[in-house]
Amino acid sequence: MLLLLFLKLISLSYEIVITESDHDHYSFTSSQPATCHDDEKSALLQFRDSFLINKSASGYEGAYPKVLQWNNPQEGETSNCCSWDGVECDEETGNVIGLDLSSSCLYGSINSTSTIFRLVHLRRLNLSYNHFNYSQIPASIGQFSGMTHLDLSASAFSGQVPVEISNMSNLSSLDLSENFFLELKNPNMRSLMQNLTSLEILNLNYVNISSAIPDFLANLTSLTTLGLYNCELQGEFPAKIFQLPNLQILIIGSNSNLNGYLPEFLQPSLLKILRVGNTRFSGSIPSSIQNLEYLEFLIASQCNFSGPIPSSLGNLTQLVELSLHRNKFHGSIPQWLSKLNNLKFLSLSDNNLGGSLKFDMFFNMKSLSGLQIGHNNLSLLFEKGNKNATLAKFNLVGLGSCNLIEFPDFLRHQNKLETLLIADNMIRGPPLIPAPSIKKFMAGGNMLKG
To answer: What is the CATH number of domain 28-211?
Structure first.
């Protein structure tokens, strides 16, 4: 559930930056809504009235103020809050059990006296993509001991994550990500997580943790998604986490003090996204990585990996992105890469790869739109008159420091090219006239004239 939530952490652009693009929200509908309780209706209306409605408070595309559709009946009128946008009620009791106010343009502070805490039957709460004015997450959140889903992401909370969340032992999904001033230090991650043994989704991206990852996370066998991107993690990453039987998304990149290695993958795995870039991970990529047969994104750039690029990667036919730049890989760029028909982005730049490479292999990769192989020790070979060169459509090409003496002819056919990195070669003569689509053109360190 909510697996697409973490696709917002994957960008197919050459910088592999975080972009928020696709955020799933809980959606509550009922064909015949139950009748809500007056006290809960009152609590909802008071909660609404405690905030300003400001469009800029929700950065998510498609945001709208759901609470403006809630009506406050006049004397003698009735209104059923179970039919309000974002409200879910138990069909038998009429109690409010779900509240989805994600991207609702709410602006203001929230504290432990908020009337939302009078909704004692809540099981699912989504307040993501609002702006709570850098207030702290109220300790009262811990009273929702029966809650299964809590999403407070991207809502401008700050301060320490309250230890009371550890009382919510029924949580299967916890998302506190993208609250850039939120901390998990005292209590630390171990204290917070020790009771949350039912978790399937844990997203703490951008939460300042500044400690090691506790080993017991490897005991959360129901975990499908673990997001710990840019959390200032330290120490050694527990290798057993890679072996969790239901894990599909593992994102631990941009933790520059996090050590680790890729273990042998001896059992089939459900992993689809593996992101360890910009860490201190080292060693080689094991040949057993071929057992990650569902893997779509392998982002292991800016680490200390070494050795050759294993041929077993060629068996990962579902790969959409393979980013291994800025490591210490050596050997040649393998021809089997051309068999990865789903690959859209390939980055092998800034390694120690060498030898002659027939560039035409990339023309056969029909899905490929981003390619970076510069700053290695390569000699590129281009076949004259290759008809496939006119079919390939790149939006990014990086061929810096590739011993080129002229602009490759295929570039003349790239009418969708946005980024061309071709600096530090030996290209003479007049510069290539960039395509109208070009946004970034780097050709310094050549011998261009005119």
So the answer is: 3.80.10.10
Q: Yes or no: is domain 332-450 CATH 3.40.50.1480?
A: no
CA distance 289 to 268: 9
Reported as a pLDDT band with limits 50, 70 and 90, residue 412 is confident
Comparing C-alpha atoms, which of 249, 312, 258 is closest to residue 280? Answer: 258
- d(C-alpha 152, C-alpha 161), whole Å: 11
Q: How confident is the model at residue 74 (pLDDT cuts 50, 70, 90)?
A: low
CA 127 to chain centre: 19
Kindly state the DSSP code that residue 299 receives in the 8-state scheme. Answer: E
3-class DSSP state for residue 219?
helix
How many Cβ atoms are within 10 Å of 291's Cβ, its own excluded? Answer: 18
Segments making up each domain of the chain, as ranges: 28-211, 235-328, 332-450
416, 437 contact by CB (below 8 A): yes
Give strand ranges (E) for 184-320: 201-203, 225-227, 234-236, 249-251, 257-260, 273-275, 280-283, 297-299, 304-307
